Amino acid sequence: MDGMRFVVSWHVHGTLAADAIFRYKLPCDATLVRVDTCGTANVTSALKVGTLLPTSDDDGIIKSFAPGANAVFVTKDRGDFDGALNPDTAECPHLVKDTVLLLTFTHASASDVDVYLTFLEG
């Protein structure tokens, strides 16, 4: 057994007037092992993942990328965490309890998009 995994998800509805901003405060120390995204139609938007606390860096975990589209997932996992807060991009970022994650989804698309973060507790 590799520990307790938990998933945090968000759904973005269609056409937005501005960027969708999501914040999530970690309830425990955890390692972000995977980010999955999927849209209902062609996605011209972008998603970036960073933190607000303890360090403020809006793309410190994953720099901007296009989410999945037309029911095809785009997955970011080990080797894809290319932000400045993860100095070893070959590894998944370990985050301490009470870290506030910041996800920014740009509004340039009419697609519904789902975003899933998978963590390994500890």
Mind sketching the topology for me?
Blueprint (H helix, E strand, L loop, with lengths): L4 E8 L7 E6 L4 E10 L7 E7 L3 E9 L8 E4 L16 E2 L4 E6 L7 E9 L1
Antiparallel strand pairs: 1-9, 2-8, 3-6, 3-7, 3-9, 4-5, 4-8
Tell me what the structure shows.
The protein is mainly beta and 122 residues long. 0% of the residues lie in helices and 50% in strands. The protein contains no helices and 9 strands. Strands 1, 3, 6, 7 and 9 form a 5-stranded antiparallel sheet that branches. The chain has a 4-stranded antiparallel sheet with strand order 2-8-4-5, with no helix packed on it. A hairpin with a 3-residue loop joins strand 4 and strand 5. It is globular, with a radius of gyration of 14 Å.
Q: Structural class, from helix and strand content?
A: mainly beta
> Termini, distance in Å?
13 Å
The overall pLDDT, averaged over residues, is: 91
The sequence of SSEs as H and E is EEEEEEEEE
Comma- or semicolon-separated keywords:
single chain, 122 residues, 5-stranded antiparallel beta sheet, 9 strands, 0% helix
TL;DR?
The protein is mostly beta strands. 0% of the residues lie in helices and 50% in strands.
